[in-house]
Write a structure and sequence with these properties.
This protein is an all-alpha fold. It contains four helices and no strands. The chain is rod-shaped.
């Protein structure tokens, strides 16, 4: 059987949400790594295009095509990265909100336990034989 208290249920949801946040961060890191690789490839192609080496001159059209593909890939990855950054922020916000709700629920549960303990003490006080004699006189 699962957790009975609201705070325990929320604690499990917080754990799941934090895991989703970590997954989104991992996706973002992978995209950033891909962008870095594309940037390095662009740099190499630019160096090859600007090279005075006759071998590179033979492949100038190939390099130009490669540059175009890399530029398109960079733009696409930049868009993906922006979406992933927003997703990380959204997942983090959800987790933070759930965590706050969990803490509030825990405070309310603790307060309820304390209130019940006080009520029990009051009930015990008025239920003892000595106190009932006081009330009769």
């Amino acid at each position: 059987m699962g957790p009975a208290k609201k705070s325990e249920k929320l604690k499990r949801l917080v754990a799941v949400q934090r895991h989703l946040e970590k997954m989104a961060e991992s996706d973002l890191a992978a995209t950033a790594k891909q962008r870095l690789q594309v940037a390095l490839d662009l740099e190499r192609v630019i160096e090859a295009i600007g090279s005075l080496d006759p071998v590179h001159r033979l492949f100038a059209q190939s390099y130009a095509d490669r540059f175009g593909r890399l530029t398109a890939a960079e733009k696409q990855l930049a868009g993906v990265q922006k979406l992933q950054e927003m997703k990380v922020l959204r997942e983090r916000t959800k987790a933070d909100r759930l965590e706050g709700n969990m803490k509030d629920a825990r405070v309310l549960e603790d307060r309820e336990v304390d209130d019940n303990a006080i009520y029990d003490l009051v009930d015990m006080r008025f239920a003892t034989p000595a106190s009932s004699k006081l009330h009769k006189t």
